[in-house]
Amino acid sequence: MKKKFYHGEGRRILKKNDQSQMDSMERKVLIELLYQLADDDFILAYRGSEWLGLAPHIEEDVAFSSINQDMMGHAAMFYQLLEDLGEGHVDILAHGRSSKDRKNAVLLELVNGPGHYLEKPKFDWAFTVVRHYFYTQFKKIRMESLKNSSYQPLADVAVKVNMEIYYHLLHWKTWFMQLIDANDEARNRMETAVQQVFDEFADVLSYGPNGREIAEAGFIDKEEIITQMWKHQLLTVFESVNLSIPIKIKTKSGKGREGFHTDDLAVALSILSEVYHIDPAANW
Amino acid sequence: MNKNLVLHALHEVKDPEIDAISIVDLGMVEAIRGDDSKLVVELLPTFMGCPALDIIRKNVEEKLDRLKVFNHIEVRFINDPPWTSDRVSDLGREQLKSFGIAPPPKKINETGGWEVGCPYCDSLYTTMENLFGPTACRSILYCKSCKNPFEAMKPLSTMM
Known about the structure:
The complex is a heterodimer of chains A (284) and B (160). Chain A has 284 residues and is mainly α.
């Protein structure tokens, strides 16, 4: 019989309220985890915002913008936790770090499609729906786990984030189900997108080189547990639309948790931090 | 410390995007502590990406400063307990309605659905146009009885 996983399995219960209750290794890996959480939401919120005015219809424009705003808010909260741990001011963490210092998964930094949002955008809606849906499903499971984090300030933030992404998940799941069961062209484009996203998703699921220590400190459930739960959630949905789940989850374009990124990220960072770099000391 | 004085002042701080309702009736004020030398006000953020939060913090500081009672005022946002939509007071629910926004539904059924009454005619014959609205906390709906579009505050609960 297959082993069933559940949140909090084998988790140490000792709660930590601040860094004085951690040893140096625990503090180090907590910071690493927080960078992953913050950078993931930050870059995908940016990619989402590039759709403003280009989404398939006006109601989607409103909805997607609202989701992006929420996600940027989540990134800000995770950067705030890093600031509280002495990593520097949130604005610098968000705007002042180069591509090699970023810990987001590579999947989330990839462009929305060919072209530029200001000129000849030929963005791929199928890829966007699949990437956002699979990521949000993963994020939901990650937040459920973080609600029991041994680092109490992170657990508190996770409770808040978890409530808000309930709506995001509903939104992306609806798009996914509608498009996958639409006509042949939609089906083909969605299946291509599913393959594309699976080819990069291993990086999203990874906790990086110190993954074991992150879980052992009780900050979050083990990588395998989260992965298993994510697969299980998708499998149920895939079965309902008669779609076979790709066998391999891969990392084709880089290893974001280790700082190996694509040029897409460097370009995105130079655009989104352009105003910040004109005058980093400006008061907003 | 005169807590009522502080509370009275906080009642005058409105949501910058819905100026009919105060932050007290929105359920954002969690704690008022300290003494005349140092006052600490703890607020709960509604939605985390809400750009109104910084404005609210500033408005609270200004309002309390004008009382000229406290030497030092600290206003901070905390995440525990989380803000949920059932924290909106009964008066707050009426104020939202007067502004044309349906208050957040009090109960959600087993299938995750909820009913929203039209803030103009109270009819339940309404449809959801967009779960997401002009701000993070609102949805866009349409009343099929009085044929008015309207907004509703989203339910937010730890059960989600």
